[in-house]
Write a structure and sequence with these properties.
With about 70 residues, the chain is an all-alpha fold. It has one domain. About 70% of the residues lie in helices and about 0% in strands. The chain has two helices and no strands. Helix 1 runs antiparallel to helix 2. It is rod-shaped, with a radius of gyration of 18 Å. The two termini are about 30 Å apart.
């Protein structure tokens, strides 16, 4: 989520610019935000799926990485 904050910062900095720099900053800022949020959602989904199926890489089952309840 720190990268989403960085994307927001890029957006705020771009708002003070003119013409092409402003447009490029807005595109870059939104791209950073979208990619970082999508990455967090994918990571959460994969961890949730691993935990529901009892995979050994679920950090919430048993000891770290062993997969035993």
């Amino acid at each position: 989520m720190l990268s989403a904050a960085a994307g927001y910062w890029v957006l705020t900095q771009a708002s003070g610019q003119k013409n092409q720099v402003k447009k490029l900053g807005q595109i870059l800022g939104w791209a950073i935000i979208v990619v970082s949020v999508a990455g967090a959602v994918c990571k959460g989904y994969l961890l949730g799926t691993a935990c529901l199926t009892g995979k050994p890489y679920c950090p919430f089952i048993g000891k770290a990485g062993l997969g035993s309840p």
